[in-house]
Design brief:
Elements lengths: L1 H11 L3 E5 L8 H11 L3 H19 L5 E4 L2 H4 L2 H17 L3 E8 L3 H11 L2 E4 L2 E4 L5 E4 L5 H14 L2 E7 L6 H4 L2 E2 L2 E2 H14 L9 E5 L4 H10 L5 E3 L23 E5 L1 H4 L15 H19 L1
Parallel strand pairs: 1-2, 1-12, 2-3, 3-6, 6-7, 7-10, 10-11, 11-12
Antiparallel strand pairs: 4-5, 8-9
Bound molecules: orotidine-5'-monophosphate (OMP).
The site of orotidine-5'-monophosphate has 20 residues, from strand 12 and helix 11.
Pathway: Pyrimidine metabolism; UMP biosynthesis via de novo pathway; UMP from orotate: step 2/2
GO molecular function: orotidine-5'-phosphate decarboxylase activity
EC number: 4.1.1.23
Length: 305
């Protein structure tokens, strides 16, 4: 799967991923009105609005982008109805040839991680049968519980030819509270980076590991150090756009081969129609605004690397 992701990035010339984080507040009134007229102002109505919104954005952008990253929290807030749309979105994106990174940020004691890994990446066995659950291609994982929280994910990734992005240095303001703490004189995120690189050695693709890392675009100095610590690790870089990360800061996240990083934007793409420069599209043409925002993002990032 990491080789497939890299092929798509190279063929499209687009080291980017579109985050499908459909908060109701970003969904145009016209989409919500239609969904609510059909299913009511209910959880079903909200889920229908999210689905129609996602589908239009995927239809408008899938030929430009290698991957999408649906953030499960945005779906979970609507309970079972939201989770059904999460699954429907994963399936639809895969049909369109996109790689799907499930942003689920799981990680627990070993036996519980095993169930998460099976549910999101692998197959669950029921008697004589086995079934895929959400069936993403990659998931995001939290390493805070240590190796026994990660090993079950790596095991399922090996069985299923799938991958992970493990949190190393997150993009948010307070990420330093714990992640930057010194342990024997070195920041914790460096130690986690070393661990991610060593976990990755056990599951290599051609040039890069199936075990990737998450490093926020908002900490480029740390990104530079982590790039060196994890030379064969693909880095998922959130924080560009809405959180203030700039293309000019992103070069250190890439290797000399021009690969090694994939930059995420969620609100910057899916809610482009609300942003300066894209108002001319108006609410109805929100998906066209997203397409233009993808084109602009690709140009912006390529100018920096
Ligand atoms: O794992 C992530 O994707 C992630 C890690 C991180 O350090 N920071 C971060 O913003 N994210 C996710 O990336 C997305 C960023 O969304 P935007 O700020 O709208 O582009 C959200 O889905 C976050 O949950």
């Amino acid at each position: 799967m990491i080789n497939k992701l890299i092929n798509r990035i190279e063929n499209l010339g687009a080291p980017i991923v579109v985050g499908l984080d459909p908060m109701l507040g970003y969904i145009p009134e016209c989409v919500k009105a239609k969904a609510f007229a059909e299913k009511g102002e209910t959880l079903e109505g909200a889920a229908e609005a999210i689905w129609q919104f996602n589908k239009a954005i995927v239809d408008a952008t899938h030929d430009l982008i290698p991957a999408v990253k649906p953030q499960i929290a945005m779906y979970e807030q609507f309970g079972i109805e939201g989770l059904k749309v999460f699954k429907q979105t994963v399936e639809y994106c895969k049909e369109k040839g996109l790689i799907v990174i499930g942003d689920v940020k799981r990680g627990d004691i070993g036996s519980t991680s095993e169930a998460y890994a099976v549910g999101h990446l692998g197959k669950v066995t029921v008697g004589q049968n086995s079934f895929y659950g959400f069936d993403e291609d990659f998931v995001t994982v939290n390493p805070y519980l240590g190796s026994d929280g990660i090993d079950p994910f790596i095991k399922v990734c090996k069985e299923e030819n799938k991958g992970l992005f493990i949190l190393v240095k997150t993009s948010n303001k307070s990420s330093g509270e714990f992640q930057d703490q010194l342990v024997n004189g070195r920041p914790l995120y460096e130690l986690v980076g070393e661990k991610v690189a060593s976990w990755g050695e056990s599951h290599m693709g051609d040039a890069y590991s199936y075990v990737g890392a998450v490093v926020g675009a908002t900490y480029p100095e740390m990104g530079k150090i982590l790039r060196k610590i994890m030379p064969k690790t693909y880095i998922l870089v959130p924080g560009y756009g809405a959180q203030g990360g700039k293309a000019a800061d992103l070069a250190p996240y890439f290797n000399k081969d021009g690969l090694g990083a994939i930059i995420n934007s969620s609100r910057g793409i899916i809610a482009a129609y609300k942003q300066p420069g894209y108002e001319k599209y108006g609410e109805e043409a929100y998906a066209d605004a997203s397409r233009q925002a993808v084109i602009d993002m690709i140009t912006d990032i390529k100018s920096a690397i």
